[in-house]
């Protein structure tokens, strides 16, 4: 059985794991990444597509910004829409910051290319991945790869293995609290081969429910509809999807151009935070420790924040200073709760909740009042702009 030694063993080759391995490598710290899915599967997962300005800066600083600079679509703001009116919120004018539309898969593709060129060790298609002895100074990861059993000893183990991963449960239950809430709605998302009908993202609250118009490129549109979490995708023909989008996104004098739908799926929405991101020599990053509903597109951005904080801590550790590594958990959670409240605010601002019929109509009108307030108050718009483009404290 191959016995390997590395400084940092990383479980999961999603954006968190690949980015951490890359950031460490740039500072001369070796790591090994172990992923249980195939490379194509990881690359094929469709996720959100908005990078905060700070995320763009981080990727660029790490040498991952070339294609991002060429193909990323810089947006100065977003549109909010309700009651048949559309209002532009101009982040650039309000606070001098922007966001960049660039799909998460593109970030992953760039990371894989960088690791390939550098010769990093990433074991895709690994089976029976298990972590051992995270409370000791020589924790281990075991797994099977191409029929061969592997046993890696490391200084640290990082759980970058997403919400359904194994690392979070290596923390004793008595040391961990889990905070979560589910929402009474889900997102039906489509990719369509059609030029976006808008220059910037549209977030719309409609009596029938939320709708959003996003994009992936000048030729590919990404759109979402609020649906009941119990809905089956089979019940939504392409015609029905476009019809609902036309109704919910429609405003006078504007056209939504339809095109062939190349992908459609329904995603439930949840908020989730684990009470700690570190335990002895185990650290969690990204979705392994927390999940946000997608309104506001914070999932990938807060994963990048975690990786930035943890990479800095590990780099300092190997230079003889443990201050930042010891502070990682608190720093990550502090950021996360700021992100959570914003994602919850955006979600509850824009979705129709009809579970309690008695208050549904009141709540809908109150939501419109809140949107009306945002549209009239420069202070409220700045608060939105600051949080949407990234707080970067
Ligand atoms: N062993 C090895 N790898 C595992 C295991 C396991 N037992 N369990 C899960 N994984 C892998 C998954 O297959 C996946 O590739 O860990 C990876 C986790 O990746 P993500 O779920 O993408 O999580 P993360 O890298 O933290 O990225 C966060 O993804 O879900 C979105 O909105 C979220 O954009 C955010 C980003
Ligand atoms: C996306 O393009 O997939 C997207 C954009 C903004 C969001 C969520 C998802 O808030």
Search tags:
globular; alpha/beta; binds P-hydroxybenzoic acid; 393 residues; single chain; 29% strand; six-stranded mixed beta sheet; 21 strands; binds adenosine-5-diphosphoribose; eight-stranded mixed beta sheet
In brief:
The protein is an alpha/beta fold and 393 residues long. It contains twelve helices and 21 strands.
Report the helical percentage. 25-40%
- Counting DSSP H or I runs of 4 or more residues, the number of helices is 12
Return residue spans where pLDDT drops below 50 for at least 5 consecutive residues. Answer: none
Give the strand order, joined by hyphens, for the main sheet: 7-6-15-16-17-14-18-21
Per DSSP E runs of 2 or more residues, the count of β-strands stands at 21
Radius of gyration: 22 Å
The backbone outline, from C-alpha atoms, is globular
Q: What structural class should be given to the helix and strand makeup?
A: alpha/beta
- Mean pLDDT across the residues is 97
Describe this structure in words.
The structure is a single chain. This protein has 393 residues and is α/β, with parallel strands linked by helices. It is built from 12 helices and 21 strands. The protein has helices at residues 15-26, 39-44, 53-61, 66-71, 91-95, 104-118, 238-249, 299-318, 323-326, 328-350, 357-376, 378-389, and strands at 3-5, 8-11, 31-34, 50-52, 73-75, 77-82, 85-90, 99-101, 121-123, 127-132, 140-145, 148-153, 156-159, 178-192, 202-206, 209-217, 220-227, 261-274, 278-279, 282-284, 290-291. The strands form 4 sheets. An 8-stranded mixed beta sheet has the order 7-6-15-16-17-14-18-21. α1 (15-26) links the parallel β2 (8-11) and β3 (31-34). The protein starts with a strand and ends with a helix. The mean pLDDT is 97. The structure holds adenosine-5-diphosphoribose (APR) and P-hydroxybenzoic acid. Residues 11-17, 34-37, 42, 47-48, 104, 129, 160-162, 164-166, 286-287, 299-300, 303 line the site of adenosine-5-diphosphoribose (APR). P-hydroxybenzoic acid binds at residues 48-50, 201, 214, 222, 294-297.
